[in-house]
Inverse folding.
């Protein structure tokens, strides 16, 4: 038997994180442990997740029947439907335990080369145009993701574009109407935008098809609309790419299925995260060599990350060589 233990994790943000869904200065996640394996569940209200709901799910599961973490599929099949974030926490902890028992980093067990990880973007949350431009300038990074979805979008983009020569991506977080998106798409090339995430509300597949048919040259990615491999297949032909997050898929196993489903439908893949500590983001980064684009900046947004794992050299991601997902508590780091 593999008992599941858990504890709340409050993350303090370096700056107010404001997107089309709302704003926050803290994020309340949950740490999940299975023996020496550790995972993380991010409570994102937009996806119906709360710390209480996550912990209630974990309490109801209690333990996994079996004692061999190499039997990942069999163990994860025991999880009932429910909180995707809680399922992700268990999945990550099991993969970490698997790697630790075998003495190998997860990317090696998956047969992946960390040298193939694309550069990560760094997120500039919604604020005044002047504040966003200053944040973009201070970041000094080559790839930025700009949060949009309000009436000030034009002023924000103009200010940011004047402040930096970085490559820019946009994320509307489902904040535009069809009319707004149709008006914006032809203008994106003027700002050098290289891709657009989730311009329309969840479920508007026909709207996404209409936007893609405009053929503006800016790829459209679905994020909030896509959780599992089944959702990826449903979006084939409607978007150019999909955004995969462990907290949406329910963990690494389903994320792998979603990535391979996207490839089967000739879709691009961006690997991203919620606001998470180094536990959740490092776990996701082990899949990054499979992806076209990466947005794994969660630890950079947090000022009290209790773990060390993934490291950053500018926009370059460096995976740890320690077994499992490779994270250690900061007080234990050498």
């Amino acid at each position: 038997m593999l008992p599941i233990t858990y504890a709340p994790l409050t993350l303090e943000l370096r700056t107010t994180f404001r997107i089309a869904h709302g704003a926050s200065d803290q994020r309340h996640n949950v740490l999940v442990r299975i023996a020496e394996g550790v995972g993380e569940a991010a409570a994102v209200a937009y996806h119906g997740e709360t710390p209480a709901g996550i912990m209630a799910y974990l309490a109801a599961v209690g333990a996994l029947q079996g004692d061999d973490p190499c039997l990942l599929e069999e163990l994860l099949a025991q999880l009932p439907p429910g909180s995707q974030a809680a399922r992700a926490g268990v999945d990550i902890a099991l993969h970490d335990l698997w790697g630790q028992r075998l003495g190998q980093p997860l990317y090696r067990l998956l047969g992946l080369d960390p040298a193939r990880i694309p550069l990560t973007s760094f997120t500039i949350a919604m604020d005044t145009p002047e504040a966003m431009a200053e944040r973009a300038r201070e970041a000094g990074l080559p790839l930025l993701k700009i949060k949009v979805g309000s009436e000030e979008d034009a002023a924000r983009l103009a200010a940011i574009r004047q402040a930096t020569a970085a490559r820019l991506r946009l994320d509307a977080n489902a904040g535009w109407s069809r009319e707004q998106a149709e008006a914006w798409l032809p203008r994106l090339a003027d700002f050098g935008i290289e891709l657009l995430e989730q311009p329309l509300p969840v479920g508007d597949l026909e709207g996404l098809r209409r936007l893609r048919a405009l053929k503006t040259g800016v790829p459209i990615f679905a994020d909030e609309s896509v959780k599992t491999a089944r959702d990826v297949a449903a979006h084939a032909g409607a978007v150019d790419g999909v955004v995969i997050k462990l907290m949406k898929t329910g963990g690494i196993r389903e994320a792998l299925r979603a990535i391979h489903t996207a490839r089967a439908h000739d879709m691009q893949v961006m690997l991203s995260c919620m606001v998470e500590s180094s536990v959740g983001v490092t776990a996701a980064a082990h899949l990054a060599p499979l992806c076209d684009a990466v947005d794994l900046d969660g630890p950079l947004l947090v000022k009290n990350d209790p773990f060390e794992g993934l490291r950053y050299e500018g926009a370059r991601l460096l995976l740890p060589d320690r077994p499992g997902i490779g994270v250690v508590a900061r007080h234990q780091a050498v």
In short: The CA atoms of residues 221 and 241 lie 4 Å apart.
